[in-house]
From TrEMBL:
Entry coiled-coil feature ranges: none
Protein known as: Bifunctional diguanylate cyclase/phosphodiesterase
Positions of the EAL domain: 24-281
Length: 293
C-alpha cells in the first residue's frame, strides 16, 4: 500500500514501518502503565567546580524502573514519550521529585552553613506548552524550592518545534526567576540561533566537544572556542561528560569553571546523592557514649 506524506508525494508502506509503528504503540502503552504504577525514578549527577570537585548543583536524570527489564535508560523511552506527549506527565513527576529532594537538601545544607545547590531538570522543546510556566510555578510553590535554585535545561526535541512559541514560553519561565540552560550545546542545528533568541544563562557543552580535548589540536581548538564564546556572551559554561584528569585540566586552562562527568560521579540514586550533598554525620554520633555523659 502507499500513504500520503504531504505535498502530493506518496511513500510505499513497508513491513518494517508496520513493525516500528507497533513497537511505538506497545511502548506507549507500557509508559502509561509505568505512570500509573509510579515506576519512574530520578537519579542525580553532581555538577562540580572543575578546580576542586565541589558540587554546586545536580542534574536530575530520569530512569524507568521496569519490573522485568530492570533500569531502563532515558534514550530508550524519551523519544516515544515525546512523540506521544507522555513526556508531559512524566516530566511533571521528574520536576516535582527533583524540586522536593533539592528543597530538603538545601534546608539541611543551610543548617550546616553550606551554600544552596541548584537542580537542573531537562525539558525538551516538546514539553514547552502554554501551561508549562504555570505548572513550574505550582511545583515551586508546592515544594518550597527557591526559583533561583532551579535551572531548566532545554534540549532540542526529536520533533519539530515552533521557535516563536518556545521563545514565548521561555520568557514566561524566566519571569518566575528560574535559570535556563541550553543542553548539548554545539550538536543541535540551532545552537547558535537558540543562544541568540532564548533568554539563556548557561551553556552546557556537549560531551563530544569534551572528548575532542584528547584528540588532534584542531578539534580541541574548537572546544576552546566554544568555551570562549560562552564567556564572551557572559553565560555560565558547564562541560558535560568529563571523564579524565587531562580533560579537567584542559578545560580549566581554557577558562571553563564547571563540569559534570564520571570523573566526579555517575548519576546517583536518591540515597547516594543525599550522602554526597550533605555533610557526613558528626563523628560524635558514631562513637560510643563517653564516660562523662
Ligand atoms: P543530557 O541531559 O545531556 O544528560 C547527560 C547524559 O550524559 C546522561 O545520560 C548522563 O548519565 C551522561 N553522562 C554524564 N557524564 C558522563 C560521562 O562522563 N561519560 C558518559 N559516557 N556519559 C555521561 P542519561 O542519564 O542516559 O540521559 C540521556 C538523555 O536523556 C539526557 O541527556 C536528556 O537529554 C534525556 N533525559 C534524561 N532525563 C530526562 C528528563 O527527565 N526529561 C527529558 N525531557 N529528558 C531527559
Ligand atoms: Mg541535560
Ligand atoms: Mg547534555
Ligand atoms: Mg543529551
Amino acid at each position: 500500500h502507499a500513504k500520503r506524506t504531504g505535498k502530493g508525494r506518496y511513500e510505499v508502506f513497508r513491513p518494517e514501518m508496520q513493525e516500528a509503528f507497533e513497537k511505538t504503540v506497545n511502548l506507549a502503552t507500557d509508559l502509561r502503565l509505568a505512570l500509573e504504577r509510579d515506576e519512574f525514578v530520578v537519579y542525580y549527577q553532581p555538577i562540580c567546580t572543575l578546580a576542586d570537585g565541589a558540587p554546586v548543583g545536580l542534574e536530575a536524570l530520569v530512569r524507568w524502573q521496569h519490573p522485568a527489564r530492570g533500569m531502563v535508560a532515558p534514550m530508550e523511552f524519551i523519544p516515544t514519550a515525546e512523540e506521544t506527549e507522555l513526556i508531559v506527565p512524566i516530566g511533571h513527576r521528574v520536576l516535582r521529585e527533583a524540586c522536593r529532594s533539592t528543597a530538603a537538601w538545601n534546608r539541611r545544607r543551610a543548617l550546616a552553613g553550606l551554600p544552596e545547590l541548584t537542580v537542573h531538570v531537562n525539558l525538551s522543546t516538546r514539553q514547552l506548552r502554554g501551561d508549562t510556566p504555570q505548572m513550574v510555578a505550582e511545583v515551586l510553590g508546592e515544594t518550597g524550592l527557591a526559583p533561583s535554585s532551579l535551572v531548566l535545561e532545554i534540549t532540542e526535541s526529536h520533533q519539530a518545534f515552533d521557535l516563536a512559541q518556545v521563545c514565548d514560553q521561555l520568557q514566561c519561565l524566566k519571569g518566575l526567576g528560574v535559570g535556563l540552560a541550553i543542553d548539548d550545546f554545539g550538536t543541535g542545528y540551532s545552537s547558535l540561533l537558540a543562544l541568540r533568541e532564548f533568554p539563556i544563562d548557561t551553556i552546557k557543552i556537549d560531551k563530544a566537544f569534551v572528548d575532542n580535548l584528547d584528540g588532534c589540536s584542531d578539534r580541541s581548538d574548537l572546544t576552546r572556542a566554544i568555551v570562549q564564546l560562552g564567556r564572551t556572551v557572559r553565560r555560565d559554561v558547564v562541560a558535560e561528560g568529563v571523564e579524565s584528569e587531562s580533560q579537567r585540566q584542559a578545560l580549566l586552562d581554557c577558562g571553563c569553571r564547571l563540569g559534570q562527568g564520571y570523573l566526579f560521579a555517575k548519576p546517583l540514586d536518591h540515597a547516594a546523592a543525599t550522602a554526597l550533598v550533605l555533610p557526613a554525620p558528626a563523628q560524635v554520633d558514631a562513637t560510643p557514649a563517653r564516660a562523662d555523659r
